[in-house]
Structures are given as C-alpha cells and as structure tokens.
C-alpha cells in the first residue's frame, strides 16, 4: 500500500485516500438496498464508535505530531497546537451557525443555521454530515501535505492510517443519512444518493488542506491542530449528542470508547 502511494505527489495521495473515505460513506448508504429500517441501538452505537475514532485521530494523528514539530517554538511547543486547535473549533462553530442543517436522530424543529422558509429534511440531513466531513477531509489532506516538507515513509504510513480510520467511521455516517430518509418513504435510490453525497466534500477539503501546507511549511503545526480542533468540535456538538438523543447513552458511550481504542491501536501500530 505504501509503495503504491509513493507513486503520487502529496496532493494526489490525499485525493486518492479521500476517494476511499468517500467510498466508505457510500458503502454505508448502500444498506438502504438491503433494508428499510435499522435498529436504533445499532445506529447509536455506530455514531458513538465514529466519535471515538475521531477523538483518537485528533490526538495521535494531528495534535501529537503538531506538538512534536513545535519543539523549537520560542513560546513553547504547546503554542501552535493550542492556537490552531481553538481556531479550528471556532471555524466549525461559525460554519455551524451559518449552514442550515439537521443532526441525525433529531426532529425538524431542531434544525440549525440560517434556515430557509421552506425546509427540506433530506437536504438538511445531508448538510449536517457534510459539515462533519469538512474537518475529516482537511485532516487527511494536511497529513499528506506534510510529506511535501520532507516526510518519511513512517509519516506516509501515519497519513494512510488516518485515512483508514476516517474511512471506517464514515460507514455509519452514510447509514445515519440514508436510513432515516428511507424510513420516511424516500426511494432506495434517492436515499442512497443523498447518503453518499455527504462524503463528496472530503476529497475537495483534502486537496485544499494538502496544497495549503505543502507550500507554506511554517503553517503545518497550526494546520494539523486546526483540523484536530474542528474534528473535536464536530464530535462534541454533533456526534455525541446525536448518538444519545434516543436514550442509548451507555451503549453510545461504550461504543465511543471502542472506537477510540481501535483508532489508537491503528495509529500506534501502523503509524
């Protein structure tokens, strides 16, 4: 796998990796062709698992490397990570306030953002997961973009591990959009298209992230921690509340821990 990716530049690597993560979203959305409904406990556990993967990736794949790169910072190694992390969270908060969206497992009355007079539930659900996928695509792009600044094969392995982890947790995201739409009577084909569409933003965000850090090396620790802050905001604001909305708090919490441990093992063992 590493040898295959070495045939491409970092931007190409990021694009190819996020085609995989987008494909995992589509794979989850394909469940609509097998069944019309999904057990709520299973869906909540999958969302919790996705949150755990994102939290672990935020540290081991993003914040940790950002701190290591900043050891020579005059203020302290913590400074770029802290500033980037807070800026990432603020960036997603601002988008969250502006972009109309509806979190999975919530009623239409809880839609957020600048809402049009005519609300389309399917569009709002897709926009919620699209918002979720922006920092994931940025994270993968930034990880691969770091290779342009002298990354080693170990760094490439770490970027691939991050893409693998995000791909794994994208599966329940596709389910979280497509299955509710199917349950409300939308056709299988439309439910699938809406579900996979939410992952389309990841390759775009990845290319932007890779290009930014490939040409502006001093930004790298800030960019890595920016992506981490954006991901943590999404987990705290969307993923965890959505996984517990229907009362399955213990199951969702334990699933989050399993997702965290799995991503930690992947990153430490393979990265």
Automatic annotation (TrEMBL):
Membrane topology, record value: Multi-pass membrane protein
Subcellular location: Cell membrane
Chief location category: membrane
Coiled coil: none
Domain of life: Bacteria
Membrane spanning stretches: 12-34, 46-63, 75-95, 124-148, 154-171, 192-216, 222-240, 252-270
Pfam family, one: Zip
Keywords from the named record: Cell membrane, Membrane, Transmembrane, Transmembrane helix, Zinc
InterPro entries: ZIP
Family: Belongs to the ZIP transporter (TC 2.A.5) family.
PANTHER family: ZINC TRANSPORTER ZIP11 (PTHR11040:SF211), ZINC/IRON TRANSPORTER (PTHR11040)
Protein name: ZIP family metal transporter
Source organism (scientific name): Gracilibacillus marinus
Taxonomic lineage: Bacteria, Bacillati, Bacillota, Bacilli, Bacillales
């Amino acid at each position: 796998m590493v040898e295959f990716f070495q045939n491409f530049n970092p931007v190409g690597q990021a694009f190819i990796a996020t085609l995989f993560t987008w494909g995992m979203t589509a794979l989850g959305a394909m469940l609509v062709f097998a069944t019309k409904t999904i057990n709520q406990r299973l869906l909540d556990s999958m969302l919790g698992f996705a949150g755990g993967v994102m939290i672990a990736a935020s540290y081991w794949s993003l914040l940790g490397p950002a701190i290591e790169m900043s050891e020579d910072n005059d203020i302290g190694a913590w400074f770029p990570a802290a500033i980037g992390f807070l800026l990432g969270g603020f960036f997603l908060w601002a988008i969250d306030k502006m972009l109309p969206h509806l979190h999975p497992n919530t009623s239409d009355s809880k839609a957020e953002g600048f809402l049009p007079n005519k609300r389309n539930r399917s569009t709002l659900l897709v926009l919620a997961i699209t918002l979720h996928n922006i920092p994931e695509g940025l994270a993968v792009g930034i990880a691969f973009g770091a290779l342009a600044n002298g990354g080693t094969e170990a760094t490439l392995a770490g970027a691939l591990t991050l893409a693998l982890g995000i791909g794994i947790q994208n599966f329940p995201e596709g389910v979280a959009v497509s299955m509710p739409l199917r349950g409300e009577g939308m056709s299988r084909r439309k439910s699938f298209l809406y579900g996979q569409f939410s992952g389309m933003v990841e390759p775009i965000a990845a290319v932007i992230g890779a290009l930014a850090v490939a040409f502006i090396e001093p930004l790298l620790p800030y960019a890595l921690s920016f992506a981490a802050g954006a991901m943590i905001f999404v987990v705290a604001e969307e993923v965890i509340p959505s996984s517990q909305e229907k009362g399955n708090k213990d199951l969702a919490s334990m699933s989050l821990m399993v997702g965290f441990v799995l991503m930690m093992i992947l990153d430490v063992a393979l990265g």
